[in-house]
Design brief:
Helix 9 (244-334) packs across helix 14 (476-486) and helix 12 (378-393) packs parallel to helix 13 (410-431). The strands form three sheets. Strands 2-1-5-4-3 form a five-stranded antiparallel beta sheet, sandwiched between helices. A five-stranded antiparallel beta sheet has the order 7-6-10-9-8, with helices on both faces. A five-stranded mixed beta sheet has the order 11-12-13-15-14, covered by helices on one side. By secondary structure, the chain is an alpha+beta fold. It is rod-shaped, with a radius of gyration of 64 Å. The protein contains 14 helices and 15 strands. Strand 12 and strand 13 (446-453) form a beta hairpin. 49% of the residues lie in helices and 24% in strands. The longest helix is centred in the middle third of the chain and has 91 residues, at 244-334.
Length: 508
């Protein structure tokens, strides 16, 4: 039932009456009929033929046939036809019936009604319904309408194809018959909620096919209200989309993901174990390197101690023996006039050899461990060493020591002396340079040593960290680096263009 608000009325079709005197062939129209046909006050052809001319030419024969049959049968008539209205073609429904008097039937009374608007509405509704049916039937997704209690009212082709049923079979079933037992309670509960909330819901559920197999669908259910919220004529609209292929892919992806995660876990465990082993190996290597460094330090200390001992032995023992031998040979020389010339010459040569041996023993003793280093300090010991080196090698050495250097820690003085000693020895043996420069400076925080020659150089720069472990401790550059490392300093060997530059920094 349509509810009309107070003061508002739907537009009613325009209706009027007419009367036809059959014997005189005259027709009288009411004002309403004149408006329906669009007649003006000047219209005078109020005969039957004049009225027929107002009918659309395609409908005139039909109207004539209906009226002629009515005249022959003396029965009422009624039909719909188009008229030629001044504003365009309109649709009219008209009818008539006979009236009799003493003479007989000679008048006809009738009505005319403009039904153009209602016809257009019906036509639009018909077209809309047709479009709806077409879209419903041809939809790419499954669509169905069901009663609120669940029974299907309408299903489309895709809905039938997804479930494997014919339309006739489904119209005897309900949505509960095709929903899996895992999902039916949830679907029913939410469907009932729609009745009070006028909403919709969507969920991925399993439907049962006719062959008892399950199909995954994306289900959307909406409540469709009819006749101004008259729930007695409302129904559910169900839309289903077959997502079985997507679910299959998701399942395969989940399986592959699980395998991948399992492999990742395995690789992670293997990697963790590898890292653990590597850390152990690194720790062992670091411990070994620390042990080597400790051993290197011990070896250098033993080396220095052995040099000091050998120097003392050479000076106190061998030197004394050679000194006594030199004295004996001097006594023999004093009495050599009684001997022949050959013996005298041999004695003189022996005395010279003993003196030379004494000088070399004394030099070797000083080089092994100069007593001046302990007694007078680094500056005096370096001056003595450089003077001797210049005499022995013929290489000009410029020694520059910053004023006020003073005494340094014993281990630092010994290290600096050994660095200069080893570097100048390398210049003499390998560089081919005729000159060398030694510069020793200091600040409040550090002591800096640089040694430079003008020789052929060492090729590629050596910036090896001083915390590395040499394979020839105590010999050459490896021993130099180890000594510097033990004091926490740094050592770099760089090209000087020409020659080589050695830079050393030791913290105070």
């Amino acid at each position: 039932m349509q509810i009309i608000e107070k003061g508002k009325h739907p537009a009613l079709p325009l209706t009027g009456s007419w009367e036809w005197d059959i014997l005189k062939d005259q027709i009288w129209f009411s004002e309403e009929v004149e408006r329906i046909y669009g007649l003006t006050k000047g219209w005078t052809d109020n005969t039957y033929e004049g009225w027929i001319q107002l009918v659309h030419h395609d409908d005139r024969q039909l109207v004539k046939s209906v009226i002629e049959n009515s005249l022959r049968s003396e029965q009422p008539w009624r039909c719909s036809f188009r008229i030629l209205h001044p504003e365009g073609i309109r649709l009219v429904e008209a009818g008539g019936d006979f009236m009799s008097d003493v003479v007989g039937f000679r008048r006809m009374l009738g009505f005319a009604q403009d039904i153009t608007s209602s016809h257009l509405v019906e036509q639009a509704l018909s077209e809309s319904e047709e479009r709806f049916r077409a879209s419903f039937e041809q939809a790419a997704v499954g669509m169905a309408h069901s009663r609120l209690e669940g029974g299907f009212l309408r299903v489309n082709k895709r809905f039938c194809n997804i479930l494997g049923y014919s339309p006739e079979e489904l119209l005897k079933m309900s949505y509960g018959d095709v929903t899996s037992t895992d999902d039916i309670e949830w679907v029913r509960d939410n469907a009932m909620k729609l009745i009070t909330h006028n909403d919709h819901f969507s969920k991925e559920v399993k439907f049962m096919r006719k062959d008892k197999s399950q199909v995954w669908v994306n289900l959307t259910v909406s409540l469709m209200l009819q006749e101004y919220d008259d729930r007695s004529r409302s129904y559910f609209s169900l839309v289903i989309e077959d997502i079985s292929d997507r679910k299959k892919v998701e399942k395969e992806l989940a399986f592959e993901r699980a395998l991948l995660e399992e492999r990742v876990d395995e690789r992670t465990i293997l990697l963790q174990e590898t890292i653990r082993i590597m850390n152990l190996q690194i720790a062992e290597r670091e411990q070994a390197e620390n042990n080597i460094r400790d051993l290197s330090a011990s070896l250098l200390q033993l080396q220095d101690q052995e040099r000091r001992r050998l120097a003392r032995e050479l000076h106190d023992s061998t030197g004394q023996i050679l000194a006594a031998l030199d004295m004996q040979l001097s006594l023999i020389q004093m009495k050599s006039q009684d001997l022949n010339s050959d013996l005298t010459a041999a004695i003189d040569e022996s005395a010279s050899l003993v003196q030379e041996a004494s000088r070399q023993i004394r030099t070797m003793s000083y080089l092994l461990h100069p007593p001046l280093l302990d007694e007078a300090g680094l500056s005096i010991a370096l001056q003595w060493f450089v003077e001797g080196f210049v005499k022995r090698s013929g290489i000009v050495v410029d020694l520059n020591i910053s004023p006020g250097l003073g005494r340094l820690p014993r281990e630092m003085e010994l290290t600096l002396f050994r660095l200069i000693q080893e570097s100048l020895t390398n210049v003499h043996r390998h560089s081919g340079s005729s000159r060398a420069e030694v510069t020793l400076s200091h600040s409040e925080a550090s002591v800096t040593l640089s040694i430079r020659d003008e020789g052929k150089g060492m090729g590629k720069p050596d910036k090896t960290p001083t915390d590395g472990v040499s394979h020839k401790i105590g010999v050459g550059i490896g021993g130099m680096k180890e000594r510097v490392r033990q004091l926490g300093g740094s050592l770099e060997i760089l090209p000087a263009n020409p020659g080589t530059l050695i830079q050393v920094m030791l913290p105070l």
